[in-house]
């Protein structure tokens, strides 16, 4: 009965599409098609029934459901690179992938997690979210991690709920877990699960399930990548972004996870272009509960920690105004330091040099000269000379060995690996502190305690290459020569139209 109805629906759909085709091609066979839908063919004959129709090469006034259409060019001379058993893959099924056949009912390091929960390590519960708010999900060899935008309910019980390729719930296969670390839930794996959600009870309707991202490939594809804190606020960003990315590329980084709350359309062109070339992933952030822009930081660090686990061997957590530099051996790069780091070290900890940034960066590319003059590393060189090792340091970590990551350091590590505090004279962070920052005025006051102030510049090889690389990327995107109206008119004419240039405002 049910199958009959489905078939009927299918026939109606075919009839409607045929009706549309027939109208366009001014054929008159549509009535015959509509009549034939009332015949209710036996569902067992479905395959052969449609098969026949397709075989029958659509004579103009036949009763065919499909008209055979010849391709523009004869392309019968190739075969697909790879074939799958397409006869068994229909609209009701999921293709169960090789990698997605694993089931697990425990999560690794549970005992250690319980200890950390007891000691409330990195418990904040400071936001307003009233639901788990799944953000991203990552599958590793024996577990799944769901990160959340919520920062509530540390260590309370929750349920992982699994969904197949069509977002149909895999009923009865839920997994009981806890909110841990903050903004995170660890879940077991389920065969065929492609989406996942989190609810506080099994009766709760889940929020939109999210696609599970693969991080189960074993070997990371990158050696050194960077997580960039959320971008928001009024200051124009394109020059800061290109300076940041090109700087760390010179230092050996090969990929950037960039979290965006809001940037101008002009700045977005640049970010999108790095996505085009495969160097950047943009993670757009938006909460369905109220939160101020600066309240994203912890949630972003947490998400990027799990996003980077088994994606990259080493990951730096940085702000747009921070540049780690090799001070004693300026000819070396950060990746040279990482290559020399003992395998027993899971964290490199860098102290801060403050650099006064007392002007905003420009909003647009105007000329090479103007851009060069405004390049951050050229323009701002007034630097602090004292340091406090534990004052807002930044870290590069081995993500898979860290249990919890926070803004300045990892509060919990899995193995007995070490945090290595890098000698301040060997390497440190040039932190271009915006000296008219409105949000945290007390930080400016504290920064002033790190004098006396000294003029310091970056290594000549960096200055030279960075200038060149920034100019190249910026000009490629923004230095577009606008032709004269006459030339434009000529090209419009080639497309067959005479445009009123003033009207279309180009
Ligand atoms: C989560 O926290 C909120 C606010 O503190 C509370 O109302 C809610 O009951 C908690 N949920 C669970 C599952 O404990
Ligand atoms: C986003 O940023 C742009 C550029 O700074 C600004 O003009 C706009 O008002 C911002 N929008 C929101 C919703 O904050
Ligand atoms: C790493 O740690 C192990 C055990 O603590 C030690 O035997 C080994 O020498 C260390 N390796 C390095 C390179 O420091
Ligand atoms: C460097 O910054 C300090 C602290 O803001 C300031 O007192 C000093 O005048 C600046 N030096 C130069 C050369 O701008
Ligand atoms: C800082 O040093 C650089 C390079 O020696 C020099 O070009 C620049 O003028 C100096 N800036 C200031 C403010 O003294
Ligand atoms: C890392 C890098 O790109 N280094 C280049 C900097 O520029 C000089 C010449 O300008 C090249 O020789 C380096 O290879």
UniProtKB/TrEMBL annotation:
Any matching Pfam family: Glyco_transf_92
What GO molecular function terms would the record report? glycosyltransferase activity
Task: Tell whether Repressor is among the UniProt keywords.
Answer: no
Source domain of life is Eukaryota
Report the membrane topology from the UniProt record: Single-pass membrane protein
GO CC, alphabetical: cytoplasm; membrane
Report the enzyme's class at the first EC level: transferase
Q: State the similarity comment.
A: Belongs to the glycosyltransferase 92 family.
Q: What is this protein called?
A: Glycosyltransferase family 92 protein
Species for this entry: Caenorhabditis angaria
